[in-house]
Specification:
This protein is mainly α and 496 residues long. Helices cover 72% and strands 1% of the residues. The protein has one domain. It is built from 21 helices and 2 strands. It is globular. The mean pLDDT is 87.
């Protein structure tokens, strides 16, 4: 007779699951409330969602237990905590954007908010484990919810965008599974720290097997991070999604992907595996440069921001290639600053969203012409949008100037001089398409006499979120040193 299995519940460290479980419970609570009482105001569901997100954030900040939990599958190190904070703060900033002046279809369904919380849980699972199976579960949980959220915008473009995203996501999921399969066959484990030990002991042999695993993993993560050549879905999906959700997609899924990429490629970078470094070098440079060039010829501000977000992701991926503590700290520092600026820019498009078609362009909702002469009838909006554009371009003293400066300095300090030069050149190229919008707003004549359409979707919560994003973008210089000290301490504590 077999002995019964005994489980030490203290060693399980179930407390490590609390941040994920809180948002899952919140999603289930919303569904149960809807079953009991229908047709409640969307303001109620916004408040409930915000409450559970903030509770989850509080448990992340207050966690002081062991790094490992739940059969050692959960990993709560400094990197995981930083990523969780970014995910939850970005989510807390996004939810109030549902409180629009106009009635949009998706926000009338409680299921929207439940799916949003399930999606957050998936992303949190991705960043709080180094077990490839759990990462895959988190990835698919988040992705399936996100496909549905895009389709719920209830436009023909939204359905098309959701189908494209689902198709590409299914392909990426297949690549991820193939990578797991190969790594398990080579090492007998799906946990990255054990895979690292086996690969180093074998001196990264057999090379062809490891190369296949790296290529499949890079393809899977390349989709989530929209690296070239896996970026083709981005402009169409962003165009079909609401501007608010597009801004969210440009931030949260990518930080989850960055954490997985950091954990996976760290073992190759630290071992100075040349061929993996060469592959990463090519992907980083091509992603930054190609998407910058594509952004130059866009007619829509929304599509321009889509290509811009890909270029920024390529810029930050350079930190993973460098692999030093300074570079990994720069990754988080850059993405925190990018969160406020980019979400603010997309929110500015969201407040001007209207249901009347073809006012400026037969295809796009936000062509450049829409913003012509904006400073003459909406001067505050024009100044705020201009500030976001200058920050994205890396113009001092706005926030992303410091992020770009810190990443480039980490490249120079690690001997990646040419990478720093290419980053600087790409930043110079990006100035053109960001300033193109500034020129339209400040130097062109208005094409429509009625400026109220620019605030059709505006409400007090939206104005508050935009004002907060603008404040953080403008005053980032005062937070640079203390923020970097906190980030560096967390990164060092994780051994990165």
């Amino acid at each position: 007779m077999l002995d019964p299995i005994s489980i030490d519940y203290n060693a399980l460290n179930l407390v490590s699951l609390i941040p994920m479980m809180i948002v899952v419970v919140g999603a289930l609570a919303i569904l149960v409330i809807d079953l009991i009482k229908e047709d409640l105001s969307k303001s109620f569901y916004v408040m409930v969602s915000e409450l559970f997100i903030l509770l989850s954030l509080g448990t992340v900040l207050g966690y002081t237990g062991p790094e490992r939990g739940f059969f050692d599958a959960i990993l709560i190190d400094g990197v995981a905590k930083l990523a969780e904070v970014i995910i939850l703060i970005a989510s807390a900033l996004f939810i109030p954007l549902a409180l629009t002046s106009k009635r949009f279809h998706e926000f009338s369904y409680p299921e929207f908010f439940a799916l949003f919380l399930f999606m957050i849980a998936g992303f949190v699972f991705m960043v709080t484990t180094d077990n490839l199976i759990l990462i895959f579960v988190g990835l698919e949980t988040a992705s399936l919810a996100l496909y549905t959220l895009i389709a719920m915008h209830n436009r023909q473009k939204s359905f098309e965008a959701a189908v494209k995203y689902f198709t590409m996501g299914a392909l990426a999921a297949g690549f991820f599974v193939f990578a797991i399969l190969i790594l398990y066959a080579l090492t007998g484990s799906v946990e990255m720290h054990k895979i690292k030990e086996v690969l180093i002991a074998r001196d990264f042999e057999p090379m062809l097997g490891i190369l296949a695993a790296v290529v499949f993993m890079l393809a899977a993560l390349g989709f989530k991070l929209s690296m070239v050549p896996f970026q083709t879905w981005v402009p169409d999906v962003y165009e079909g999604a609401s501007a608010a959700l597009a801004g969210y997609m440009s931030i949260v899924p990518k930080i989850a992907g960055f954490i997985v990429a950091m954990r996976f490629f760290e073992l190759f970078v630290h071992a100075e595996n040349v061929w993996v470094q060469d592959i990463l070098w090519i992907v980083v440079v091509v992603t930054m440069t190609a998407t910058n060039i594509m952004a130059l010829v866009q007619e829509s501000v929304k599509r321009m921001l889509a290509y811009s977000s890909i270029s920024h992701a390529g810029f930050v991926m350079g930190a993973i290639l460098i692999g030093t503590t300074q570079a990994n700290s720069a990754l988080f520092f850059y993405w925190i600053l990018f969160t406020f600026t980019n979400l603010g820019a997309f929110s500015m498009l969201w407040v001007s969203r209207h249901k009347k078609k073809g006012v400026w362009h037969s295809r796009y909702d936000h062509p450049y012409e829409k913003f012509s002469g904006m400073v003459k009838f909406m001067p505050v909006n024009a100044v705020i949008m201009g500030m976001f554009m200058l920050s994205l371009a890396g113009v001092p003293p706005f926030s992303l100037f410091w992020g770009k400066l810190y990443i480039m300095s980490s490249a120079v300090n690690s001997g990646y001089i040419w990478l720093a030069v290419i980053m600087a050149l790409n930043s110079a190229i990006s100035v053109y398409y960001y300033l193109k919008l500034v020129v339209y707003m400040f130097l062109k004549e208005p094409q429509k006499e009625n400026g109220t359409i620019y605030m059709k979707n505006s409400s007090t919560p939206l104005k508050t979120i935009i004002g907060f994003a603008a404040f953080m973008t403008l005053t980032a210089a005062f937070f640079v040193n203390p923020l970097l000290e906190i980030i560096t301490a967390y990164v060092k504590s994780s051994g990165f």
